[in-house]
Write a structure and sequence with these properties.
Two copies of one chain form a homodimer. By secondary structure, chain A is mainly α. The longest helix of chain A is centred in the middle third of the chain and has 26 residues. Helix content of chain A is about 70%, strand content about 0%. The first copy, chain A, binds a DNA duplex (30 and 30 nucleotides) through helix 1, helix 2 and helix 3.
Chain lengths: ~190, ~190
DNA sequence: GAACCATACGGAAAGCTTTTCCGGATAAGC
DNA sequence: GCTTATCCGGAAAAGCTTTCCGTATGGTTC
């Protein structure tokens, strides 16, 4: 039903450029001032008017979603490279570490996920859809190589890491990683 | 340094009544419309003007914090009763279940905790301060009774349950509890 | 390379929410 | 009952997101 053959027109270049500029600016601002930073700050950094922001991202949450989805994509895309460069078990460990770092660093991600705002309902689905296959492939390889016990669901592991590594105000550093390790330990023993 | 002896005057009764009404109304509204519900909705339900709300809770987040802290208190206070009525291991299990239910049910709690807003910085500290001792006592009893292995830090366990049970949009029901069980499993095996 | 027009831009204004302010009310103490 | 510190209520201020629309501009066509 999608008519990709009859593409009527290409999107204007300035429009595409502005979208990129907005995403870049938003990523920066979210990093420095948090996801609650006023939209003005983002448009100023991007050198663009507010109207332009809302043309491309009708709601504020759309921009946040887009920034996060971009980073999830980057995380998923890191898997093949790791699989090619390292032994299966090592590749899995490194990827999980990258995931943990992403979740721990991007405070806005945890905030959006737990906000309860319906606008972000699709986010955890996207997270799962993109990262699930990536993790599954790494997991399968590790299991096949006998470096990891079978019986671990990629879905469960993904959520668990995402949740455990979400940063809390005054928690000791390294908590997320420690707990993740403990969880994997549990999964191994639970695997019988 | 606190001069509780020289209490100059008692807080007016209507003031205290309004604070209670506001907390009750807020709890209800947060439950039905979420923590992002407009303040107006709360003051209307409490039968009070906005000015009154802001007199007692200078910032919106103060009200949210107060509601959450109230529930944390209730959770902590449930521990002694459970300890009195059940065997140590059972009491621990039931209390953890209550904690899990609290975290899973009160979406606003997870949202506040992960929001990144400095206004909620003290919240995880309060959570730990109130619930840590409660859990520690239950844990100690269970360990002493030989029903639970030693080597589990109350702090780690508390945070882990809080994080794992925080609800995500489309996650399967029971995930939090399943993961918590897995984690305890891991802690047991890690206890050597 | 000029003219046309669909598409995109910018920023002013509207719409909501939170937060402040202050004249008027009312418990508490005498 | 009178006094006074404290509190109440809601109107106004402030701040943010979102809408709107006249203007500008990239793409296409001749």
């Amino acid at each position: 039903m999608t008519e990709d053959t009859a593409a009527p027109r290409r999107k204007r270049t300035d429009a595409r450029r502005n979208v990129e500029a907005l995403l870049d600016a938003a990523k920066t601002v979210f990093g420095t001032s948090g996801v609650d930073a006023p939209a003005k700050e983002i448009t100023d950094l991007a050198g663009v008017g507010v109207g332009t922001l809302y043309r491309h991202f009708p709601q504020r949450s759309d921009l946040i979603k887009a920034v996060i989805e971009r980073e999830i994509d980057a995380c998923a895309e890191a898997a093949p490279a790791l699989a090619a460069e390292h032994a299966p078990g090592e590749a899995l460990a490194r990827w999980l570490d990258r995931l943990a770092a992403f979740v721990a660093t991007k405070r806005g991600f945890a905030a959006a996920l737990h906000s309860g705002d319906p606008a972000y309902d699709g986010l955890s689905g996207f997270f799962m859809a993109k990262l699930g296959p990536a993790l599954e492939s790494l997991l399968d390889s590790a299991v096949t190589a006998g470096e990891i016990r079978a019986g671990v669901s990629p879905q469960d592991l993904l959520y668990a890491v995402a949740k455990l590594c979400a940063p809390l105000p005054d928690e000791e550093p390294g908590y997320g990683r420690r707990m993740t390790a403990l969880l994997v330990e549990g999964l191994r023993s639970a695997g019988r």
